[in-house]
Structures are given as C-alpha cells and as structure tokens.
Amino acid sequence: MASHSLLFLAVVFSFICSGALEEKLIRVECQPAVGVVGQTMKIHCSFISSFKEINIDLVYIFKSGPENPVFSLKNIIKTGDLRFNLPSENNPSLELASAAVADEGNYRYMIVTNRGVIEDGSFRIGVTSKYHEPTTISWPEKIEEGGSVDLYCNASGGYPAGSIQWFDNTNTDWTKSATLKTTEGEDKLVQLSSKLTFKKIDLNWVPFRCVVLNSKFVKERESTFHLKFTGVDTGSSVTVSVVLMVTGIIVVAVLMGLLFRRRRIQQGRRPSAQPILRASAVRTTLNTDEEDDENEDGNEAKAEGQIGECFRKATTEQDT
C-alpha cells in the first residue's frame, strides 16, 4: 500500500514542472456504463485535447479513496483487480470482465500521459441482471371450490429489485391484494417473493398469471398458474361443453328427419283420383299404414330414449 502511495506522489511531482501548463489542455471524458452480471462490459472514454499524439504511461482507477486504487497499469504490468483492462494502446477506454453487482458505483480515473497528468477523470458503472423463470405454488396444494388459498410466486437472480403482478384469466389485476418481499443474497442479486391470499377462491378465475417486472416496470418473465381443485378437473368444463353442443346438433337433426318423414307419409295418404279400388286392396293398404304408424311410433320412442340417454351422460360428466 505504501509503495502505491509513494509511486503516486513521485509521478505527480515529476510532472508538475514539465506538464503544469499542458495538463490544463488535456482531459478525459467517460460515458456512464451499464453491464450485465457475468458478462464483459465496456467503459467508453476519450481524450479531449488539441494534441494529436497522446501516449499513456500510467493508469490508476480509484473507487473508495484516493490512496487505494482498485486497479493500476504501468506499461504492461497490472496490479489490483485484473478484471479491468485497457484493450487498446494509448486509448483510455476500459473493459471490465465478469461484471458483478459489487462493481456498481462511481470511479475516479487518473491517467499519466506524455502531455501531462489527468487527475479529475471519472465514470460510473451500473449493473443489471434478468430474473429467472418464476416458480409458483399454492397452499393448500389441492383447493376446494369457495375455500381459502394462498398463492405464491418467486423469482430470483435479478438486479435491481423489481416487482411481481398477478392477473386472473379475465385479465383482472390482483396485484394490490398481494404482498411482496425482496431478499438480497450474498452476491447482491435479488429474490422476489409475492403472496396472494384468497378467503374464497372461484374456479372461474383460474388460471392465474404471475408477471415479473424489472426496476423499470418492464416485463421480463411470466408464468401461468393452473390450480388444482379437489374433485374438479379444470379442463373438463370444455369437454362437457363440446359434448352438449354435439348432442344438441344430433337432437335437432333427428327431430327434423322424423318430422320430414311423417309429413311425407301423411301426403301419401291423400285420396286418389283413380277409380274405386277393390275393398281388399283398401283393407290391405289400411293395414299397411297402421303397421307403418306403429313402426314410426316405435322408432320415435327409441330415438327419444337415445337422446335422453345422451343428455343423462353429458349431465353426469359435468357433475363429476
């Protein structure tokens, strides 16, 4: 530590005479940098000077105090946090590998050049991290219709702290009824835990959606939450509706067919314009018509019985 301080003072004093006038004519400007946790980030800096040729001899980066540089570079020798690097020769821009939340903050940038010493350079590092896919659970796991239930949605690995929203299948927002808890891990990454409580849950509200937002209220993740109800298959309602619709179509088709056939038979019984038929032919025709009526009535009764059975099965499936 003492060696760094002595070297710093020696460098500054060595340039007081030779660069006292020129250092006012050179400065460095850096843009705010935002990186992603675990990735390499770039800190763009540039010299502001009228000099065309500027050579970098020494670099110091400070974060907490002027006597404790987090990184230094002299020629090709690096000390301190070796994740920092100057990728181009005589270019003040920096790189930081494997960015972490702990790297976030303000930095002071000192550069010793052949044109003088730049002591007032500065830049800021910001860090972000996307949340992982949320996990959802309910307590109790199996729910009774109209009973109480607690719904949980957890998302971890994000930074900065975000929020969680709740929606039902009608897109009604239940977020105001939920409670949100944020927990910071050792790596400074945030875990979001949201709890939504219902004293009386309605089957028509499912499924729910758990939406994870970042610190700028932009959606990053979403999970659909299908609840388990005791004795109820949430997908059976669709099946029952289809069965009832098909049954109704069949009923209408059968009734239309029977009506059309009866009208056709009745039209066949109209008086004939031909001469008087023999009595035996008339009796035979009458007997045949009576048998047709009996068969027709039997078919109608059978069809009605089958239709009733279809409705009973559909009703039974809906009840179960």
UniProtKB/TrEMBL annotation:
Transmembrane domains' residue ranges: 238-260
GO terms, molecular function: cell-cell adhesion mediator activity; integrin binding; protein heterodimerization activity; protein homodimerization activity
Span of domain Ig-like: 134-226
Biased composition (Acidic residues): 288-298
InterPro entries registered for this protein in UniProt: CD80_C2-set, Ig-like_dom, Ig-like_dom_sf, Ig-like_fold, JAM-C
Any one GO cellular component localisation term in the record: plasma membrane
UniProt region (Disordered), positions on chain: 276-320
Domain of life: Eukaryota
GO BP terms, alphabetized: cell migration
Protein name: Ig-like domain-containing protein
Species of origin: Astyanax mexicanus (Blind cave fish)
